[in-house]
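Suppose you are handed only these lines of text.
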Amino acid sequence: MSSPRRVLLATQVLTLDPANTIFAPGAVVLDGNTIGSVGPVPEQPEGEIVDLRGSILLPGLVNTHTHTPMWVFRGLTEDVPRGEWLTGRLLPLERRLGPEDLRMAALAGCLELLQNGVTTIADRYGHMDAVATSVEASGLRAVVGHSLFDRTGEADLARTERLIDRFGTDPARSRVWAGVAPHATDTCGPDLLRRVRRLSDRTGARVFIHLAQSEEEVGAVVARGASGCAAYLDGLGLLAPDVVVAHATYLSDAEADLVGHRRTAVAHCPSSNAKIEGRVAPIARLRRAGAVVGLGTDAACCNNGMDLFEEMKIAGLLNKVASDDPAALPAIDALRAATSEAARALGIDHLVGSLEPGKRADVTAVRMGGPRLMPWHDPIANLVYAARGSDVTAVFVDGRLLARDGQPLCLDSERILADGAQAARRLGDAHD
Ligand SMILES: [Zn+2]
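From them, the structure of the protein bound to zinc ion can be written out as follows.
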């Protein structure tokens, strides 16, 4: 599929290449779905000019952990005592919805992500065949995984195989591709996880699993005879560079070191962990030990919005508090955790995560003006600590301009929100 050559003109271009090169002013040339060049503004630009002066261009944001259909539960699981959120509050709500509700809710979730400047997501949930239809229609780049549980293992494995048949597992070949997504260490026994490892080895699919997200999960795994959730996964060959573990909240020091030594990827969801568990994952230790850490928004009902700008700031703040060190997790590290490191966590850093020639044309533009964003002394600090998703002025995925000034260009937002609201009405009496 070819689209015209576009020349994006901007006040600043933050490449996030290895040298942290910034062009001010700068231009990014998009050749179809690929970045042709990045640099100073050419004297005679060739191609369609997209005037984004007044904005900074950065690599499209990469969200390493989300559940787009859970958009529909926002506001229904608030301030719940520790240990009750998942089984006590969420599961009864989930039982009320069918695949068509989830398909509609997922599209609304994708719309929210897109408007906040997210261009790539790792999405996982039940009924992923229906959900993936929305994800694909949204225009986002995405890896999709159908959640596997012991109690429905055979059917879940069959659905996962169908997802792999439909989308493949190679992010270089398809904008949407499939992963293998066992739910968590307590809900997936050794037999299922051995089959997951074999399926991943056979197909090349990356594995996505929740790890140590609650004390209940740790208790269940220890009751099974393992010393902890991470040791349990390690014994099954599932601490590895092709595995993305979400949360990693309740890890001992030794387990955090083990996750890191195996070069496992970690999806860090700081606001979700804070709101649901009142905890901060041991990110500093995980990174020191070698883990690749990317940021995730988790679901809209966890935190209560899918905005990676918020997550960058909250990650910075919580990790400073957890480390008792205001210099911990500096702004550039938080920004890379939502771009280049997040891409590395998903195994797609050869395709996205920085603005460099040859990579896919995924670009997010953010306004530089207004009282909240001026002065603009330090672009990285402003993006991490001052900007919000609502400051995004343009979003390109695969060279397609998908949103401009907060408005989607390829999606009918009124219809999507009306459909999402209809699905939400099925939950309206949830408090009765
Ligand atoms: Zn999750």
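What can we learn from it? DSSP finds 16 helices and 18 strands in the chain. Residues 99-115 form the longest helix (17 residues).
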